[in-house]
Design a protein that fits this description.
- The chain has 324 residues and is mainly alpha-helical.
- It has helices at 3-49, 51-58, 62-65, 71-74, 79-88, 95-117, 120-165, 170-180, 185-197, 202-212, 216-231, 235-259, 261-284, 286-294, 296-320.
- Helix 1 (3-49) packs antiparallel against helix 2 (51-58) and helix 1 (3-49) packs antiparallel against helix 6.
- The longest helix is centred in the first third of the chain and has 47 residues, at 3-49.
- The protein starts with a helix and ends with a helix.
Length: 324
């Protein structure tokens, strides 16, 4: 391939990527200014009308109820799911920022690939890959943050149980978790405490927590607390048993990871081995490997091999990933 094609593709990629970053930063700057003005207005309303009338405006969830983004974008399919996923990952992006970044990466990857290979089909595949990058990033961040939350949950449950045994109300136990633990669990329990302090029903705050944190343990915790508030009972003992159950499941999960380690390593080796072997052959005999990329059938075989490698890797990962 001529050097001019690579240079043109690189310049197009950089131009579109940098333009996307600039637009995204501008949108976030405008969003923060609007958010600050609206917060000042809400505080003034709180000072004039009192907490009962203004508390509802203060506890609204910005990602879903404030129309900071285009109304058309808000009604797109899965827009609410993406906003919730960003919230679970601890990202403060707006939906329009996510849309701009997705579109910019799709254009940059698609145009650069089309200029290099002179194939619009390859450009379309690269555009789809670029468009999937923001979603994969926020999904990974959400999974990582939920994993940290789950790891901190037994200690938080123990802390609430000790607070109840000491004679404190449940709300005080939530505040202790918010003050004495670290994020992400501190931020979520602080939000629960602040919402119920501003006047939202305690049941609604727990249900909102279950929506933001889609973990089975959180739903079990909410069910135990709500049942205890309805019929009574020893909530401290229930919380202790729950914390012990979660720790036992963590222990079993670690044992399963040890048992399935060989399968995961096999998947990594099978994914990396063809690439490493191809690179070694190219370094030893470049003319032999260049035929594979110059011929039309060779490019099709390379594309098929890449697709099969990706499918095989995810297949092996699905087999060894035991969820319970």
């Amino acid at each position: 391939m001529p050097t001019s094609s690579w240079l043109s593709a690189g310049m197009v990629f950089l131009a579109v990527a940098l333009g996307t970053v600039a637009i995204a930063l501008l949108l976030e700057f405008s969003r923060e200014r609007l958010r600050g003005r609206k917060m000042v207005g809400q505080l003034r309303r709180l000072a004039q009308e009192g907490p009962d009338e203004a508390s509802d405006a203060l506890i609204r969830r910005p990602g879903f109820q404030q129309k900071l983004f285009d109304p058309v974008l808000a009604h797109l399919p899965h827009a609410a799911d993406i906003a919730l996923l960003m919230q679970q990952g601890g990202l403060q992006w707006a939906l329009q920022t996510y849309a701009v970044v997705t579109l910019g990466l799709a254009l940059s990857f698609g145009l650069a690939t089309a200029l290099i290979f002179r194939l619009w089909l390859a450009g379309l595949a690269a555009a789809l890959f670029g468009a999937s990058i923001p979603y994969l990033v926020i999904k990974r961040k959400a999974a990582k943050r939920m994993g940290q939350f789950e790891a901190q949950l037994p200690g938080a449950i123990d802390l609430i149980g000790r607070a109840i045994r000491a004679g404190h109300p449940l709300s005080a136990g939530l505040k202790m978790v918010a003050d004495e633990t670290t994020d992400p669990i501190a931020g979520e329990f602080r939000r629960v405490f602040e919402e119920q302090r501003f006047g939202l029903a305690f049941e609604d705050t727990l249900l909102s927590l279950a929506d933001r944190v889609p973990l089975v343990d959180v739903r079990i915790l909410n069910t135990a607390i709500l049942i205890q508030r309805e019929v009574g009972g020893n909530l401290a003992e229930v919380l202790d048993n729950m914390a012990q159950m979660i720790r036992q499941r963590f222990k079993l999960r670690r044992q399963l990871r040890v048992i399935t380690a060989q399968g995961r390593i096999s998947g990594y080796v099978l994914a990396v081995l063809p690439i490493a072997l191809g690179v070694v052959i190219f370094l030893l005999n470049p003319s032999y490997m260049s035929t594979l990329f110059q011929a039309g059938i060779g490019r099709i075989l390379v594309a098929g091999a890449i697709v099969l490698q990706i499918l095989g890797y995810f297949w092996i990962r699905k087999i060894v990933d035991i969820d319970f």
